[in-house]
Amino acid sequence: MEKLIITAAICGAEVTKEHNPTVPYTVDEIVSEAEKAYKAGASIIHLHVREDDGTPTQDKNRFKECIDGIKERCKDVIIQPSTGGAVGMTNEERLQPIYLDPEMATLDCGTCNFGGDDIFVNTENTIIEFAEKIYGLGIKPEIEVFDKGMVDMALRLYKKGILKAPLHFNFVLGVNGGIAATPRDLIYLVDSIPDDATYTVTGIGRNEFNMATISIIMGGHVRVGYEDNIYMKKGVLANSNGELVEKVVTLAKELGREIATPDEARKILGIG
Ligand code: KMH
Ligand code: ZN
């Protein structure tokens, strides 16, 4: 089986220090959390950034400071800025980090409820605009899927030539408003994508490690990190993103799956 690519989503836009005091806000904290995740075995850093007070931002300069710091301490890691940002941001705001020459960027392929009154809006025209800009800059998109209809949207745009093979998906299961984190629903998503596509699996909250385990067994890849879950197990907060990555490495080793280096991840994903 292909080696396992581990993505660390170290920060996100929603989780705060009130949830877990080690959630990173400052540039130093973000760089340090990225380094811990990288040293533990992550080959991709999925990156959101914050102001010092924790406010999510897509500011290009703030992204540049964080990306420069991460590149200095994690020489070969793949950096994947978010173009999702936080609920309520404009498209222009969200797109800023793609102009920093990253290797990857996210491409959210549909609209969904995001808990409470929040709606994460991605109209068809937004998806097309983002896709054209991302491919236009030679960046590999990771197609973010929160519900099955988003796979179908991606496949429609693929047939039209707007998305290009090989497609790489991130299946996010367990968002309050998206597809449930069940083995059945994960298999449904995996069965719906082309044979030459790759996928990673993100289980939200308490679903993080059971979804990761299923993906390790099925030949998919895994994303973990504070964006998605702040606990090592029920009632035990993680001390760092590195600890969450370490747990996936342990699971993978127990299940006989080797971990991909960043360069091996590039080959698997067709980057560069
Ligand atoms: N923060 C969510 C509203 C992405 O990174 O592309 C969107 C998100 C997806 O996190
Ligand atoms: Zn994200």
TrEMBL record:
Entry-linked Pfam families: BKACE
MF term (GO), any: 3-keto-5-aminohexanoate cleavage activity
Cofactor: Zn(2+)
Keyword entries, A-Z: Metal-binding, Transferase, Zinc
Keyword Zinc: yes
Protein's UniProt keywords contain Cell membrane: no
Full protein name: 3-keto-5-aminohexanoate cleavage protein
Native source species: Vallitalea guaymasensis
